[in-house]
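Give me structure tokens for this 392-residue protein.
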Amino acid sequence: MTDTLQEQMSAEADDFARRHFDADGDLIEDSASFSARGAGLMFRPLFDIIQESDTAPPREWLVEGIMAERQYGVLAAEDKAGKTWMALELAMSIASGKPWLGIHPVQKTGPVAVFFGEGDEDELVARWKAICERVDLDPKELSRQVQISLRVPALTSSAAMDAVRLELQMLRPTFVILDPLYLAARGANGSDLYAMGEVLGGLQEAVQDAECGLLVLTHFKKGEANDSFGRTSGVGPGAWGRFLIAASSLVRSEDEKTGGSYAKVKLEYRGGRIADASVTYERRVWQDDKSDLNSPMHITFTKVDDEPISKSEGNFRPTYLMARVSEHLIDSDSPMSGAAIEKAITGKATTVRTAYKLLLAEGYIEHVKGGYQSIQPFTDDDDGAAGGESPF
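Here you go.
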């Protein structure tokens, strides 16, 4: 060993001793400079952890059968599937104890912190009032339980994450919602598991230190997958979440009853503590006066049978486009992806998507590896419901 190397090692040892031991040679247990403990990397006897767990209060469900208290997870959905409505509805439910979407019981209530990155103050207030009206709650009174940030934190910024940790330590919420991930994770590679793990890991640590739960909202990626969970944008969020919620729009149209928007949405749940499950509901959103931006908004959620979509629902059915999709799949030599169908058929992409999902739900086509293929032909004559005529 050279004299230079020996001197360097000796200097490093002296520096370590100064930082981690006092003048009497005793370990500085609570020293912030003790880097391993500060990083949460110190080993503990499993026996001690079991003892703490056995003497702690029983753990509770936050939303029964979906997410436990202090768990973190992901809600992924198609564009315009109503992610923000679902997120604000969840904030209302945890703050008040009302069932989420009028369907899922809430077992633990408390303050909620929401990073609301899509929309402005007017949009936020209008939606919050509509959600509270649905369950006969005073929106102002309940809002005392909800803290809102109209910007999402930059998850790749150490300064921003330090601010998040400080805020959560002061607020001590029961639950945190971040909407949406793509704004908070700007610059990160969503398809890189390790990169996304680093991005989401900091947020995970912040909520765990504050002993609260977390829901991150993200989008479905384009293209096809074997199931809804496989469409979660990027590999990171899906692998990271302890519970996963996937929201798929089965039907979107103008609502004949209110003149507003109608959607039939299928929610699917997956997690280590729960068996795969799903529920389908109808969502209606409308205003008293569509021409007045200040007119109050209203919303309803109604649970319905999962599948198939009934031919007698009375909502818009794009039967002309259903027939065109059926023809293309019959003529195709191989399965077609959803994106390929939307490109091949003239019409609004969301309406074409509704057409092939209706065909799938009613058994005219099937989903196989590589996309969709025909099982039996569909023609305009197969359905006499409104909307059967050509839209062109």
